[in-house]
């Protein structure tokens, strides 16, 4: 099993300096690289200080200067916000600059907040259809001399400029949850990214089941890779794990509030949630987080990941976004590298 880091700049307080947050993001990625992780992933979001990443290619090009070995992945670009020619070209340029280290993760997107501002009137169904048109178009543009008459984008014969360094282009990963998304990815020769979010091991098994069913449906297509993305905290002791569960419960309360898109937002920040708001959430609780996320001392975390490895996951991505302090994120990541990863070598 390979291990990677999934990270963004996180800003939940207007007093947090954005340059400092970016510098801390870079430091975490350097720790991952120095510690022997396989890849670093960062996503795309707009107008949200909760996860600051308006163009992940910029971050990855900068990370290429600060790292030596890690693959550099978009986790993920939001398909409906991209024209196929633009995505093919910008991804290829990133691949060129990073000397062939790019992995291209693509998703339909999740936040109606972003849909309303970037593509007013678009719903999740249309976003998914746009992704299904985009992925094969990008592959064809990398090959060159491709024309399209599509539902969403039509263009005359075009070639990606530049073309990627990697043969056949960077590996493409599709964020999948429902069976149709898994089937689309497998049928189009794409790897798959999955996350159970706040759900537990049952969801991890369910997602793998959908992937296996998709692979079985297309037996003539080589089995792609599948990556599991989970919030992870390697604790110093039991008390530290309890604190992490409280912190990650607060994170998911904010995640859920952004997803519902009902609270006032000012200067890119959501109206603060009170302790009472958090305590009254119908299913987010610290106890649920400790049970469902991967939180615990190194031996506990190792055992949880072994279960995922046994299911057949190829890559485990350490989702570090948590609204914790940089110091707590750093300590957890360093313990993961020192005390968990060696058990899988």
UniProtKB/TrEMBL annotation:
Domain Luciferase-like: start-end pairs: 1-314
Classification via InterPro entries: Bact_Lucif_Oxidored, Luciferase-like_dom, Luciferase-like_sf
Gene3D superfamilies in UniProt: Luciferase-like domain
Keywords, ordered alphabetically: Monooxygenase, Oxidoreductase
One function term, GO molecular function aspect: oxidoreductase activity, acting on paired donors, with incorporation or reduction of molecular oxygen
The organism of origin for this protein: Tritonibacter aquimaris
Superkingdom of the organism of origin: Bacteria
Pfam families per UniProt: Bac_luciferase (PF00296)
Keyword Oxidoreductase: yes
GO cellular component, as recorded: cytosol
SUPFAM superfamilies attached to this UniProt entry: Bacterial luciferase-like
Name the record gives this protein: LLM class flavin-dependent oxidoreductase
């Amino acid at each position: 099993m390979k291990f990677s880091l999934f990270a963004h700049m996180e800003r939940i307080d207007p007093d947090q300096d954005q340059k400092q947050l970016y510098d801390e993001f870079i430091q975490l990625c350097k720790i991952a690289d120095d510690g022997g992780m396989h890849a670093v992933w960062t996503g795309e979001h707009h107008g949200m200080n909760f996860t600051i990443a308006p163009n992940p290619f910029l971050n990855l090009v900068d990370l290429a200067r600060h790292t030596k070995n890690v693959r550099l992945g978009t986790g993920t670009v939001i398909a409906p916000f991209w024209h196929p020619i633009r995505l093919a070209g910008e991804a290829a340029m990133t691949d060129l600059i990073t000397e062939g280290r790019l992995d291209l993760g693509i998703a339909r997107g999740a936040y109606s907040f972003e849909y309303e501002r970037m593509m007013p009137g678009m719903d999740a169904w249309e976003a998914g259809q746009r992704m299904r048109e985009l992925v094969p178009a990008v592959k064809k543009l990398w090959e060159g001399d491709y024309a399209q008459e599509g539902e969403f984008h039509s263009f005359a014969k075009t070639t990606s400029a530049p073309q990627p360094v990697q043969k056949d282009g960077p590996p493409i990963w599709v964020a999948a949850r429902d069976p149709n998304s898994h089937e689309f990815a497998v049928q189009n020769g794409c790897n798959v990214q999955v996350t159970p979010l706040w759900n537990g091991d049952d969801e991890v098994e369910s997602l793998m089941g959908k992937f296996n069913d998709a692979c079985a449906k297309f037996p003539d297509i080589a089995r792609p890779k599948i990556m599991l993305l989970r919030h992870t905290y390697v604790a110093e002791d039991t008390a530290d794990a309890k604190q992490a569960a409280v912190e990650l419960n607060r994170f998911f309360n904010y995640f859920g509030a952004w997803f519902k898109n009902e609270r006032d937002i000012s200067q890119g920040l959501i109206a603060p949630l009170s302790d009472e708001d958090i305590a009254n959430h119908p299913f987010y609780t610290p106890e649920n987080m400790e049970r469902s996320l991967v939180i615990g001392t190194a031996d506990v975390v190792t055992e949880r990941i072994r279960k995922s490895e046994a299911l057949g996951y190829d890559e485990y991505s350490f989702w570090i976004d948590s609204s914790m302090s940089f110091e707590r994120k750093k300590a957890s990541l360093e313990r993961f590298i020192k005390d968990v990863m060696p058990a899988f070598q």
